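Internal ticket - ligand job 237, thymidine-5'-phosphate:
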Amino acid sequence: MEKTVQLYEGKAKKVYATSDENLCIVSYKDDATAFNGLKKGTIVGKGVVNNRMTNMLMQLLEKKGVPTHFVEELNDRETVVKKVKIVALEVIIRNVSAGSFAKHYGVEEGIVFDEPTIEFSYKNDDLGDPLLNEYHALALKVATREEIDTIKKYAFKINEVLKDYFLALGVRLIDFKLEFGKTADGKIVLADEISPDTCRFWDAKTGEKLDKDRFRRDMGGVEDAYKEIFKRVTQGE
Ligand code: TMP
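stdout (structure tokens):
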């Protein structure tokens, strides 16, 4: 499978067309941004970690009954995926208070919830990805009621699978962001990535952050955190 024209360049990935109209190739960059692109930097080796980790997790999720866009890993940074139309929603699941939840509601980070929460943002960089509820999503026609129900079902299932998976590696899955896409035949599948860019991972023993918060918050040790979480995921292979 070969790349043809570049279709899109995002903050962390490029997407290329291929000779097959139903397949694309994604290429993961080391570029890192935060705060809707206001903060920019490079995390050396991030593209490799995010590509390989996403692919391993998507294959695990497929086995557990969650359809994904994953087709085939080509090399360290590039993967063949199904061509989808991305649903303009960022779907966030939280198991423990952190980040914008702690800020919005004025609570400390680290409160364990009795049940996971779900929230949606409207995927629109110009507007700063504003929060929205299901009725807003319907009003904006970003998804149908049936699609939203499917997305919610998959998102909670993904949480159950990944929470257990990471705990076995000594990592707490605090929260994460998912994106879904629609295939040519109208099926909803998990798309985008699942990586330290899009999840909060805390070491189960020490509480150390093993994710992009180290970059967002200028904590240092960013590359080492990506290496550490990747080492654990590949050890669990
Ligand atoms: P938040 O607490 O800042 O809302 O982030 C919740 C989760 O979503 C966290 O794991 C990081 C992830 N996330 C993204 O993947 N992309 C984003 O643009 C933002 C703001 C958060």
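Auto-summary: The mean pLDDT is 97. Residues 145-167 form the longest helix (23 residues).
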